[in-house]
Amino acid sequence: MTAAPVIRSVAVLGAGTMGAQIAAHVANAGVAVLLLDLTSEIAREGLKRARDLKPDPFFTPAAARLVATGGLETDFDRIAEVDWIVEAVVEQIEIKRALLERVDAARRPGTIVTSNTSGIPIAAMAEGRSDEFRRHWLGTHFFNPPRYLRLVEIIPTPETDPAIVARISRFADVRLGKGVVVAKDTPNFIANHIGLFGVVQTLRALESGDYTIEEIDAITGPALGRPKSATFRTMDIAGLDVLGHVARNLAARLTSDEARRQFALPPLVESLIEKGWVGEKSGQGFYKRQKRAASTSSPQGGESEILTLDPATLAYRARQSPRLAALDAARAIDDAGERIKTLFLGRDKVGGFLRATLGPTLLYTARVAPSIAYSIDDVDRAMKWGFGWELGPFEIWDAIGVREVTEAVGETDLPPLVADVLRSGRNRFRDRALPPAGEGLQILKAAKDRQRVVSRNAGASLVDLGDGVLAVEFHSKMNAIGGDTIQMLHAGVKEAARNFTALVVGNEAPNFSAGANLMLLLLEAQEANWDEIDMMVRAFQGATQALRCAEVPVVACPAGLTLGGGCEIAIYADRIQAAAECYIGLVEVGVGLIPAGGGTKEMLVRSVADLPDPRADLLPFVQRVFETIGFARVSTSAADAERLGYVRSTDAITMKRSNVSAKGIVLRPFERTFPLEARACLRRSSSASTLRGVPVASANTTRSSAGRSPGSWRAGRCRTKRRLPRCSCSIWSAKLFSSCAASARRWSESNTR
């Protein structure tokens, strides 16, 4: 079978908010991008706005060098050079059709063309285009911001070649690190359709006057397994004008008056849009940030304060702390499903709100799911990846119970999906948890399900991953490192030496580790137990040295926050398999301490390992490390961590982290490596003026350019460990634990031959 062509270059048409950020994330993956707008100047301004955004859409400033800009009139013929064209212009079908007509004439046969529209029918946009164009045409709906929100909805038409769907899905999944859901070509696709219905139910609850904005945000935030921004803060961030546009677009495409009424925004939202109070970009929406007035104690004025809108008067007032006893009690429930069930069935204000808002949303989702998605699994993944829900709608159905939901809401006209479940005598849509989005994404969980936990304490576990690989899994709060964790690291090194061929240090939580448990250190310091503190420091140093001198290869898999002691554990492994969204740093100086686990020594060793000349002045190299540690610098991405020295060029960076819920912990293993040649490109590229001319180094060239000779990465390592070969792209192109396991296993096998 012939392999599908690799996508090596992309053109984005439209340098607005979404177009520029899509271009940025494609550049993050090391792919050359051509960003076009009406004129070159407009395109450059769009790219500049993207570079100024916070949070940053680029992994590193160097990534922006891969984005070339141009005008639709002066540089349009350059789209013939690219493999994928993304249309991201204004949401007006006639403008899009006119542009696509030009694309059809200028593109190279075989080039994929997609639209980032959030709701315009994909098939309708391609009417009148050539047969070859329509075979390569589909929708790719990124969620904003593209770097940070995982969801990409892929929307093929009946004429789209299935091979093209597979090709673009794989690129979005593997290279861009996105969660891909294939959706049907229906109004607003999956996530926005269901999400907007839930927002309208919440706005109607606010309109009733029974709940304040603060109460609703308290209920619909982390207590419900949703982001901290909850409902109204999220709307302010996204923009009420965007909300209005999406609602009007959806209403225009729905076929019945009843369906349109379900998505009609309350007059309050329309009034705010008319006033221009559309959220954060206008300075006010449901919330308003205002600087405190000057006073005798503070003549220049105090810090800014957040005011809340009074829906009845449209005036802003001081924020009110919600007093909801049910939420206070629910905080003790760690399991998200059990917590939601308790709140939903509660006979109090919180329960009443959820039965009036979440209940209809669950019923509506079950009613429309067959028409908008190919499976209920896709619906759950779309809401989790696109809106940050901890549990998808059908997972919530199963957590509460199908019968309990219908009885609590009092609905008699049940959707067919619900009626079928009840008719069969079941009370759940699934007998098991939501399956992983791809094969091999639950290796650690599957190992634990097969009773492969070798040893366990309160801070960590040893898990047999199979194939001779042992894992040390942290599971304390925020994966903070305490005595239990250190004890299990030592035990893991010994157990791996006796009965395994490799050791992996990783976990399924959003964050690898927030660092050492400094509260224990503070308590000992307050009691002046200096000998105890000395023992704690020695024990931690012993753990990192044990990893360094282990008789088997050690691979660390940091993701999310990897701070302080967590950083030291990672950098003492033989190899790091880092998630692209990995925030690594030695931050102890920020609380008045010096890193004590050996991180300062390791960073210094790394800084001088590749001196251009043995007689070179050491000061610049030492100064860089001193400043990195002294200013407690934390990387903004794994690529940035390489710039700071926490990640080496021989380590691997992977773009994707998959969400699978397991006992309230989000499983986020990594899927594919961030190509070494792409990283070399980001380091070395000084211009992206020609798409085909971007310098790309091979993996071997990358390491040679770093001044390394084969095997020299082990300089300064414990001499008791056998020499391991350098990793290669082929080794690091698999999923997190399987990748680490395979890599380590190959190392071991190569050393026993």
Features:
about 750 residues, alpha/beta, eight-stranded mixed sheet, disordered C terminus
Q: Which overall shape is indicated by the principal axes computed on the Cα atoms? A: globular
Low confidence ranges:
659-677, 684-717, 719-753
Quote the beta fraction: 5-15%
Largest sheet: spatial strand order: 3-2-1-4-5-6-7-8
Task: Provide a count of the helices.
Answer: 30
Distance between the termini: 33 Å
**How is the main sheet built?**
8 strands, mixed
Instruction: Report the structural category.
Output: alpha/beta
The portion of residues assigned to helices is: 40-55%
Please state the CA-atom Rg, rounded to the nearest Å: 27 Å
Strands, count = 23
Nearest-integer average pLDDT: 84
Account of the 3D structure:
By secondary structure, the chain is α/β, with parallel strands linked by helices. The protein is built from 30 helices and 23 strands. It has an eight-stranded mixed β-sheet, with helices on both faces. An eight-stranded mixed β-sheet has the order 12-13-14-15-16-18-20-23, sandwiched between helices. The chain has a three-stranded antiparallel β-sheet with strand order 9-10-11. The chain starts with 8 loop residues before the first strand and ends with a helix. 48% of the residues are buried.
